[in-house]
Amino acid sequence: MAVIDGRLFIITGATSGIGLETARQLAGIGARLVLVGRDPARGTAAVDEIKRLAPRAAVEIHYADLARMDQVRELGAKLAALPRIDVLINNAGAFFWRRQFTAYGLERTFALNHMSYFVLTHGLRERLHAAAPASRNSFDQA
User: Fold this and answer.
1) How crowded is residue 90: how many other Cβ atoms within 10 Å of its Cβ?
2) Are 72 and 102 in contact, with CB atoms under 8 Å apart?
3) What is this structure's pTM?
4) Residue 3's pLDDT is what?
5) Could you give the domains of the chain?
6) What confidence score (pLDDT) does residue 103 get?
7) Whole-angstrom Cα distance, residue 142 to residue 126?
8) pLDDT per residue as tens digits for the range 70-119
């Protein structure tokens, strides 16, 4: 099993689907979690579920609409205050059937599924580098 205890994982799109399942599994093996979601009701439900499944889990949630670059930058600034970030899981995503543009002139699907990952990762790069060798397969296999 990988050495996870105490490592901090940030998961975007963590209130449903693959993101929530990833959070459940990581909480169960001792990871510290910072979830990112857009909807406060779903966020509260996700945190409650994780704490029910893993009562000792360290989990918190932050909210942002990742299709809005101002909110992505604001989120990045908040998360960059963390002393350490071991893993960033850029999971949030959606496909919008109607072509829509953000206030920044970006097509909405592109803004959420691509630009948000770049902007958030760029904003957290110093914290991620500080946790090195997280970017170089730091998990020991038993």
Assistant:
1) 19
2) no
3) 0.88
4) 60
5) 9-136 (3.40.50.720)
6) 86
7) 29
8) 999 999 999 999 988 999 999 999 888 899 998 889 998 999 989 999 99
Whether 122 and 73 have beta carbons less than 8 Å apart is answered as no
Give the whole-angstrom CA distance, residue 112 versus residue 114. 6
Q: Under a CB-based contact definition with an 8 Å cutoff, are residues 126 and 70 in contact? A: no
What is the DSSP secondary structure assignment for residue 140, as one 8-state letter?
P
Which pair of structure tokens corresponds to residue 46? 């996700």
Task: Supply the DSSP symbol for 139.
Answer: P
3-class DSSP assignment, residue 134: helix
H helices of the chain, where? 17-28, 40-53, 69-79, 108-110, 116-130
- Evaluated on CA atoms 95, 97, 101, 107, the torsion sign reads positive
Residue type, 142: A
Which residue has tokens 């693959």?
18
pLDDT of residue 4 exceeding 90, the answer is no
In angstroms, the Cα distances linking 71 to 38, 83, 139 are 10, 21, 31
